[in-house]
Amino acid sequence: FIEVSLMPGKGNLTLTGQLGDVMKESAKAAFTWTRSHYKELGLKPDFAGKLDIHIHVPEGAVPKDGPSAGYAITTALVSALTKIPVKRHVGMTGEITLRGRVLEIGGVKEKVIAGHRAGLKTIILPKDNQKDMEDVPANIKKDIKFIFAEGIDQVLKVAMKFWPPKKV
C-alpha cells in the first residue's frame, strides 16, 4: 500500500520508503499528471504551490524499484487531494506516463498471486498485459475481477469510491 500526507507548504514533494530511482520517477510522473489535470480533479490551479506532499511506501527496510507502482501512486495521491477514498480490496499495478497512458509491466503472475493472497477482489492491470493472464492459475482467475486499463482515468473510475470528483 501507499500512504500520502498533505501539509501546508510550498510545493515540496518528499518520497520515502527506500525507493529506487525508477520508482521515484514514477512518483514524480504521478505528481505531474495530477498537477496537469487539476481541473478534472476539482482542484484549484495553485494547489501544488500551497502544499507539501509526502508519499511513503511502507516497509522501509525493503528496497523497492521499478515503474509498476505508477497507478497506485497516482491513485493514492488523487485520493488524498480529492478526499475521495479508494475502494477496499482493489489492487493495481502499472506504469503511468505524463499523459496518463498506462504501460505494460512485468511479473504479472507473481503480482496477481500476491494480490490474491492479500484478499483483493479486483485487480487493475495494463491492457497490454491481458496476454499474461494465461499464466495466472485458474482458481485465482475465478476469485478476482480483472480490469484492463489503457488510461489512468479508467483506473480512477474503478478504484475510487465515487468518480468523478466535484468541480471547484
TrEMBL record:
GO terms for molecular function: ATP binding; ATP-dependent peptidase activity; serine-type endopeptidase activity. It comes from the Bacteria. Keywords: Hydrolase, Protease, Serine protease. Residues 1-162 form the Lon proteolytic domain. InterPro entries: Lon_proteolytic, Lon_Prtase, Ribosomal_Su5_D2-typ_SF, Ribsml_uS5_D2-typ_fold_subgr. It catalyses: Hydrolysis of proteins in presence of ATP. Pfam families: Lon_C. The keyword Hydrolase applies. The keyword Repressor does not apply. Its EC number is 3.4.21.53. The active site is at residues 68, 111. Gene3D superfamilies: 3.30.230.10. Coiled coil: none annotated. GO terms for biological process: protein catabolic process; proteolysis. Belongs to the peptidase S16 family. This is endopeptidase La.
